[in-house]
Structures are given as structure tokens and as C-alpha cells.
Design brief:
globular; binds zinc ion; 25% strand; PPM-type-like_dom_sf; 265 residues; 10 strands; 8 helices; Protein phosphatase 2C-like protein; 2 domains; alpha+beta
Length: 265
């Protein structure tokens, strides 16, 4: 069994708002913290980095240690544990309270379980076919005509925010444990899954923004070298600093990739 992990901030001098980890007990987690607008209040005295550094380890612990619980219940518990660490100091009902996208993967001899919330990406090689396991709700929201019209305008962020963790919108892990029930979850026989790649959207932009290839190509690149994947993204970002050729949210984004080989080819 081989694993590889890379998690790097978009700018070397900035704190990484992603979190990625693999447990030797058979679990992996990738979180991507949602960056609030620079002028925005969040109701929280903590940074987004602090938040993912609480939620991520809590979720990895739960996933690896509590095999009697579903991954959704593990996420609910991890959200609850994180909430308890700052509910006395912070207003967690604030709509910009720290929050993150989530991918969790867990395996034992018999099965592979997964959980996906918001726009981080999980790819599984299932019997030789690379299969994306995605939470499509954010894409659905941003693809709506009224959202496309205002994309990359100042009002866009506000419009998007009003749909986050709201009915008919999309969901991220913040302070409400109930959101765990909204995650995309499932399980497969262990023998059907050869390998897995989990990543934040700062890495999946290799495919989704820069069009270096499709999910199968991206999987192949991650398997070859997670560093090579992120290097290619960084080079493309640097070549288009004004985001003209490749429209995207952040010019350079935090990027995290986890590769897990569960069985030999
Ligand atoms: Zn706080």
C-alpha cells in the first residue's frame, strides 16, 4: 500500500486554509476552509486555518477510531467538538463563521466508505474506471443563469453566501452538526477499489479550470506525482496572474492532494 500527500498554501507567506491527513488506521481527510472577504466580519476570533486544524484532526480521529459510526456521524461529532472549542468566545450563528468543504475516506479489509461535502473532489479507481464522487450542489448553484450573469462581479460573493447552508443552496461544515446529514456518502467493497485521490479545488483546478485533462488524466497525474500535479497548477496560475485566460476565484489557491493505493494494479 502506497500513500502520498501534499498540502500547500497558495502564497508561501500565507497560512494554509486547507487541511489534509492520512491515518495509518485506514482513514483520510481533506478539508478546504472557506476564505471570508478581506473586509468581512466572521463573528469569530479565530482564523480559518485554526478552524480546519481543529475540525480536520477531530474528523480523522473519529473516522479512524469509531468504526461503529457512519462517516456522517463522525463528521457530526467532529463539528460538535470543534464548536465546543469556541462557542463561548465566538458568535457561531454568524453566516461567515469559519467553515470548510470536506472529503473523508475510510477503509478496512472489507469495504471503502466515503463522504463528500461541497466542492472538494474524490476520485476512485473502481475496477479500472476512474469515477468522480462529487457533491454537485455548488456547481448547480453557480451554474444558474442569474449567478452566471454576475460571476466575478462584487455582488457575486454575497449572492453565493446567501445560498450557503441554506435550503435550495449548498452546504459546508461550519458549526451546525446537522449539515453532516446533507453530505454525499456511500460505500464499496474494498476489492473493487484499487486507489483513491482526494483533493481540494485548488488542486482539482488542474482539470476544472486549466483543462490539462479529464478526471482520468488527473488521477493518473496524482498517481504519478502529487507534486507534479500541484507544480503544473502553480505554473498555470503564474502564467495567468490576471485570471483573464482562465477565469477563476483566487489567482492562486491553497492546494491539497491525497493519493491512496489500496491494491496493486
Ligand atoms: Zn472562533
Amino acid at each position: 500500500m502506497r500513500t502520498e500527500l501534499l498540502s500547500v498554501p497558495g502564497e508561501p507567506a500565507r497560512a494554509n486554509e486547507d487541511f489534509a491527513a492520512i491515518s495509518p488506521l485506514g482513514a483520510a481527510v481533506v478539508l478546504d476552509g472557506v476564505t471570508p472577504p478581506p473586509d468581512g466580519q466572521t463573528g469569530c476570533v479565530h482564523t480559518v486555518t485554526w478552524f480546519v486544524q481543529q475540525l480536520g484532526p477531530a474528523l480523522l480521529d473519529q473516522a479512524a477510531g469509531r468504526r461503529d459510526q457512519s462517516l456522517a456521524d463522525c463528521l457530526a461529532d467532529a463539528i460538535g467538538q470543534t464548536k465546543a472549542k469556541h462557542e463561548d468566545t465566538c458568535d457561531l450563528s454568524h453566516r461567515r463563521t469559519p467553515q470548510a468543504t470536506v472529503v473523508a475516506l475510510r477503509w478496512d479489509e472489507k469495504r471503502v466508505e466515503y463522504l463528500v461535502l461541497s466542492d472538494s473532489v474524490l476520485l476512485l479507481d473502481i475496477e479500472g474506471t476512474v469515477t468522480p464522487l462529487l457533491d454537485g450542489r455548488l456547481d448547480e448553484v453557480t451554474g444558474r443563469p442569474e449567478m452566471r450573469e454576475i460571476r466575478y462581479t462584487p455582488g457575486y460573493f454575497d449572492a453565493l453566501e446567501s445560498l450557503r447552508n441554506a435550503d435550495g443552496g449548498f452546504y459546508t461544515a461550519a458549526a451546525d452538526a446537522e449539515v453532516a446529514k446533507r453530505a454525499v456518502t456511500g460505500q464499496l467493497p474494498r476489492n473493487d477499489v484499487r486507489a483513491a485521490v482526494a483533493m481540494s479545488d485548488g488542486a482539482s483546478r488542474w482539470s476544472e479550470v486549466f483543462h490539462f485533462g479529464d478526471w482520468t488524466d488527473l488521477f493518473g497525474q496524482a498517481e504519478k506525482s502529487v507534486e507534479g500535479l500541484v507544480d503544473a497548477v502553480r505554473a498555470a496560475e503564474t502564467a495567468d496572474p490576471d485570471r483573464k485566460d482562465f477565469p477563476r476565484g483566487k489567482a492562486r489557491d491553497d492546494a491539497s492532494v491525497v493519493f491512496i493505493e489500496l491494491a496493486d494494479r
